[in-house]
Design brief:
Strand 1 and strand 2 form a beta hairpin. This protein has a 9-stranded mixed beta sheet with strand order 1-2-3-5-4-6-7-8-9, sandwiched between helices. The chain is built from 10 helices and 9 strands. The protein has about 280 residues and is α/β, with parallel strands linked by helices.
């Protein structure tokens, strides 16, 4: 193990290993935590991996504890990666004043406005620092990498996949924030992290990014599940915006509207098997 990576705990899990780690991030300028599940197939060599981005108030433990995905990852021979959702310990004034901005609410972008610009560099941390580090230090094949996420993390999965062509081979999301420039969560986060120029916000809006595509970036298709009993659906999530953008771009999209499901991890648990299978079909196909 890289001496720069501190192992916090490791646990046997479905024949593989669930680990929780910390490293000193140069991009964030603070210690950052992440979790990795390695399936038993790593005994034969590097395996494909899924990067999962969690939502507001969550951390690197949330998905690994609540989603029940390790059994599925072991069956398919996939690693799971889950980073924390924001810097912690920066002591920026106001960082913990609200649950939807600051700590636990990094929105997977690089802030340009002070006092956030110094540490709130989630996009650069994940894409340019964490993933290469994991590829060097774990038996993970970064050429076979998928991305998915939930809520704010669904926004992150969609936008990072579209902002970094070729980095991720498969894409899905649970109840993503599909048009953050058009909802209160996004307006609060983007206004604080990126400033008043709403044009600059569009570079982090999945529906706007998809609308600008000249060819389908994910010809194998994108899978999105959305609960119809989700209290955030009407005001915050706007999956119809992504649906229209995909149609305009010729991007295959399976948007499943699930009757009776809310925004929480009972919903994620219910459909995570379909998402892992979706990624496995692409990454191992």
């Amino acid at each position: 193990m890289n001496p720069d990576i501190k192992t916090l705990s490791e646990h046997g899990c479905f024949g593989g290993t669930q680990g929780f780690f910390e490293h000193a991030s140069r991009e964030i300028g603070l210690p950052m935590r992440f979790s990795v599940y390695l399936p038993p197939q790593v005994a034969q060599g590097p395996v494909p991996a899924l990067l999962y981005l969690a939502g507001l108030t969550c951390n690197e433990e949330t998905f690994m504890v609540k989603a029940g995905a390790q059994r599925l990852a072991a069956e398919h021979g996939l690693a799971l990666i889950a980073p924390d959702t924001s810097p912690r310990g920066a002591n920026v004034p106001g960082e913990s004043d609200s649950w939807d901005f600051g700590v636990g609410a990094g929105f997977y972008l690089d802030a340009t406005q002070e006092p956030w610009a110094t540490h709130w560099r989630m996009e650069s941390w994940i894409v340019t620092e964490l993933l290469p580090l994991l590829g060097q230090r774990f038996p993970i094949d970064l050429h076979r990498l998928g991305i998915f996420g939930h809520s704010m993390g669904g926004h992150g999965a969609l936008t990072l996949a579209l902002r970094h062509p070729g980095r991720f081979r498969s894409l899905s999301a649970f109840a993503p924030i599909c048009a953050p420039t058009e909802c209160p969560w996004g307006e609060k986060a983007f206004g604080g992290y990126l400033g008043a120029d709403r044009e600059a916000w569009l570079a982090h809006d999945a529906s706007a990014l998809m609308q600008s595509q000249t060819a389908a970036p994910y010809p194998e298709g994108i899978l999105v599940d959305q609960g119809l009993a989700d209290k955030f659906l009407a005001e915050q999530l706007h999956p119809h915006r992504l649906e229209a953008a995909c149609r305009a771009a010729g991007q295959p999209l399976v948007l499943r509207r699930q009757e009776g499901y809310d925004h929480g991890y009972y919903f994620v648990q219910s459909f995570v098997a379909d998402h892992v299978a979706h990624h496995a079909a692409v990454l191992k196909g």
